[in-house]
Predict the 3D structure of the following.
Amino acid sequence: MSIDTKLLVSAKWNVKHIETLLTRGLGHKVDEVDYKGDHAFLYVTLTNGSKRMIYVAHSDEHGGVDGLLLSLASNDEAIELFKSIAKVLGGFLRENDCNNACTVYQEPHNGNARFVLDHVILSQAVSESRGLADKIKNAIDYK
C-alpha cells in the first residue's frame, strides 16, 4: 500500500492549467506530459532539482463533486508542492490518503467558492441529512 498526497481542485482547471502554474507560477520545469485518455502524468523537475511524477485525472469520488484530482507519492516535498498549488487554485488537500482529514483552501481571489460549497453540501448530505440546513448555513457563514 502506498501513501499519497492528494489535491482535489475544481473541474474548471485542466492539465494545461496545472502545467502553466507549475512552470510560470511556481518556477518548476515540466519535462513531459503523458496523456493516457482519461488521465495524465506530469513529469516535473522541481526547483531543487528533484524529479516527481504527478497523476492528474477527473474525479467525483470526493463528496460527489466533479473535480480534478492530483496525486503524488507523499513526503514533505509533495505536501509543500500541493500546498503551493492549492493556494492559487483552491481545493481540498489530503496530505496522507490513509487519513480522511482534508485542509480546505479557499481564497476570495481564486473563484473557487462554488466548488467548495458544493463539496461541503454534498458530503454533508451523504453523511448525515439531519440538520443539513444548519450545516449549510454554517458552511457558507450565513447570518
